[in-house]
Amino acid sequence: MKDFHRPIVRNRQRYLAEEVESVETQLADRATQRERLGAELQQVLRTLDEGGALEALTALQQALAQKQASVEALRHRYEAAQTLEASALEIKAKRLDLQRALKDDLDERARQTSEATVLVSGFAQRLYGSGCQAYLEFDAGPSSLRIVPHVDSDDSRGIGIMVIFCFDLTVAVVAHRHGRGPDFLVHDSHLFDGIDDRQLRDALELAAEVIEREGMPVREDAAGAVVRRVRGRRALRVPLLRAWPQRQSIRARRASASC
Fold it and tell me: Is 151 exposed, middle or buried (0-12, 13-18, 19+ CB in 10 A)?
């Protein structure tokens, strides 16, 4: 058995010795080549330095590094912009879905919107005659629902104020009929600034008629009526809708004193 393995071991040792010698020779050659290349590099650098080109090369390398950094920053910004664009498209798609859903909801509520439009039209005709055209525009906008009342010649300031009055009165009536809102309507006195006494009288008379017809609650106390002075020193008594009792009493006393 030893005689069998002895020549195999010798052959293996000889092969490994040859491999070690070959690797050492290659390492020596590469060391020589490295020294030669280093010497050539030093010679080139000295040549560049003598002609001032080394500083130019260094400056170019720095500029290249800055440009590479700028390119990387632009790449990141481009990727962020792509992400934002994708988000914007997604938001736009969702907004369109919501707008479509809002339009479908308006179509399903055609009876309610028609009821409000009929009320506005009736109030406007009560104020300005049967020939007055008035309606409500319901628009499912991209960000919200827009409800715009329209009345003939609404470019006039007086008529424009009465448009607001008719719309608010319509909202109060619809809310009262369906039990979806408060049972009072509050207007700041500035609403009636800039309109003549006739329009003010007609508006208050209309409010009184609507209150009585719709069975809307009225306070039965000393503040249940207010006296409004109109042209020709005529007085008009209009019952107030439910409001703050203290403010009502003050206004009633002032109105009574002014008469």
Answer: buried
148 Cβ neighbours under 8 A, 6+ residues apart: 136, 137, 139
Report yes or no on whether pTM surpasses 0.85.
no
- Residue count of the chain: 259
- Which pair of tokens denotes residue 185? 């309507």
Q: Where does residue 140 rank: exposed (0-12), middle (13-18), buried (19+ CB within 10 A)?
A: middle
Beta partners for residue 137, in sequence order: 148
Are the CB atoms for 166 and 124 separated by under 8 Å? yes
Residue-wise pLDDT for 148-185, tens only, equals 888 876 446 567 778 888 888 898 898 888 888 776 67
Q: What are the structure tokens assigned to 95, written together?
A: 């907004």
Could you identify the residue written with the tokens 């009585």? Answer: 212
> Sign of dihedral through CA atoms 209, 123, 159, 190?
positive
Distance separating alpha carbons of residues 144 and 102, to the nearest angstrom: 9
Q: How far is the C-alpha of 31 from the C-alpha of 213, rounded, in Å?
A: 111
